[in-house]
# Entry
Amino acid sequence: MSDERELVIEAAKRARAATRGLSIATREQKDAALHAMANALIQHSELIVAANSLDVQAAIDNGTDESIIDRLTLNNERVHDVAQALRSVADIDDPVGSVVREFTRPNGLNIKQVRVPMGVVAMIYEARPNVTVDAAGLAMKSGNCVLLRGSSSAYNTNIELVRIMRAALEGTAIPIDAIQLAPGTTHEAVKHLMTARGFVDVIIPRGGAGLINRVVTESTVPVIETGVGNCHVFVDESADFDMAVDIVINSKTQRVSVCNAAETVLVHSAIADEFLPKLMSAFKECDVTVHGDESLRSVVEGADVPFEIATDVDWGDEYYSLDIAAAVVDDLDAAIEHVRRWSTGHTEAIVSNDATSIHRFSTELDSAVIMVNASTRFTDGAEFGFGAEIGISTQKLHARGPMGLAELTTTTYIVTGTGQTR
Amino acid sequence: MSDERELVIEAAKRARAATRGLSIATREQKDAALHAMANALIQHSELIVAANSLDVQAAIDNGTDESIIDRLTLNNERVHDVAQALRSVADIDDPVGSVVREFTRPNGLNIKQVRVPMGVVAMIYEARPNVTVDAAGLAMKSGNCVLLRGSSSAYNTNIELVRIMRAALEGTAIPIDAIQLAPGTTHEAVKHLMTARGFVDVIIPRGGAGLINRVVTESTVPVIETGVGNCHVFVDESADFDMAVDIVINSKTQRVSVCNAAETVLVHSAIADEFLPKLMSAFKECDVTVHGDESLRSVVEGADVPFEIATDVDWGDEYYSLDIAAAVVDDLDAAIEHVRRWSTGHTEAIVSNDATSIHRFSTELDSAVIMVNASTRFTDGAEFGFGAEIGISTQKLHARGPMGLAELTTTTYIVTGTGQTR
# Structure
């Protein structure tokens, strides 16, 4: 075993040892620790900002993109926000110990399915220091020990954040090893974490498609995949036009850099002539560029909206920008076929007043969330009322769609008898 | 892409295409198909037995173990049993479409979480032809298309079984490609199936530890791991002695070849002197061999029970035989430490009349099922009242413990609004 692998496994073992104490901690004990962590972060804000400035300077020296540098940067105000997020986690209900179901068998056995922590959770993420604190808080509240593996470009910041949070756990009921940085800064060290099967219970990658794809294909530890979202809005024959325009515009433009933004609009052929000009004039107002086939050119350019010919990349990928792919489809069947072919299984919306169309769209697609007459932007933990945002799962195992704290737990069956045998 | 990989992917694509029809099939349509399959198997029983005899002869020629040949062998009566199992699946409630939860947000959005099929499920299993039929039935009832990859030693049998089941689907509402053999008979072909990410939604291995370990480490498709069971029974200080003897004997001896049989008994030191002689005399009656440390030799051999010195293999592995590892532990803490160190996370039992001990044993271990004053043998889908036995999950993601049909489904959120935007 390489030295680096040994360090990763040793860290996981320390986390495993800490699970016993954390898994039986009460809500009050966990909340007290969360507030202690938040207080410590604010108290040592200067140290954090100083460590962060080393990372930011290195990123500038490396010619890193400005948007990435912005995500990496912490100032006193942002440290305050990050600490506040820990207090919000303290306000959420504790999922541990809640009874999922309970029933008694004819032989008198009482069977109770109870939520329990996963155990050791590893987070692999990019250059966003707020994720370091968020993940530590969410893991703790759900009773899990966490190994944090952020981008090496945030290394100094993450070391300082974790050092401060761990120090804050002294004098609380929570074992210090419940929060750890995963050892190592190399690409290989990530591999050791992803293959620490038996030592780590679950890995949650948070970041772009490249990171997520690497983790899901290389891990031998079970993974919860969070979401790439090529979301569609279908405007049906029976749609209310004003509602359809509002929903398309909101889904596309309210925030373009997120996974629940719409990337494609499909319009039923029966209403295309009447509806498209209305949609294009809204696109014009919002500076949206349309990608479609040649048949759309005249209506798009006629409204003074930029137009480009769409290729497979347009139908398949996320723009993260004020661009949208657009197509007129023959009917509902053609819309369903298009979405089934190109969707990443995140969120699809239909705007319609026809119950049959709505039912078919809801049942014949294969996505985590179907929006009926609502914006795709509502696929979100907070909007669902889950209180915390772990991510949006686009996989089918374990959790699908917005994940709350309960999705960071598993269950145990406790079967109580009076001496029953078979 | 190799030709063989291409064949596997093509089969998965045909299965994917069939999911659209199967996922919206009604319960009546699926049950009718299950009965049609059962009828066809009985009608063509002779063909199945003839194909099976080829596999059995080849196994005999290869000097295969008698117990494996027994599992491989089908006669008319066994074909009848296998067909009957399909009729039992028809009797179980359909999980598809059931509402997991439903709530309305302050903004008026109605959020409904509904059970839907996984899509394409692959089963990888050993030389048990009954699994071919069972898996096809369970997958169909849960709305999933299935790719079946049994042992190549059952190849002729599986070809005939699948041919007959597919033919039976003609004239039903279920697409024929809902049931397919995974192409190829080589080790490599299994690898192609395990890496068909994006084409196959989930892989369920059924078989011994070697098979399961290969699948969980080599798959890039999500896996539901089913269970290796190193189950423990702890006899606490406050245990009723007769109950404890009954539970240990039943857990160990009622059926030794199964994952929910007990492999280790731990006895609290405070009662060891009084309890062990009673337990040994029961072991004597049931021909159990005890593996323990030197301190146990005199009490075991004094009862005329065979004794062997235990090594780490005894503490860590399943016997599948009338052997049991035994140890006297200082107290509850020592019992918990022992189980945490050696358990495979399947089932642990405590025999106790002390509420605090029971609570600590239930919450400080990390296993799928905790039995309180009941035999470990109750960890079973049928005993839990789930109607069907997909397997016992020992992983923490998605499902843990006995799995029913619901565990072969995922969920979709259907969010219904009246034009809401953010």
The mean pLDDT of chain A is 95. The longest helix of chain A spans residues 3-23.
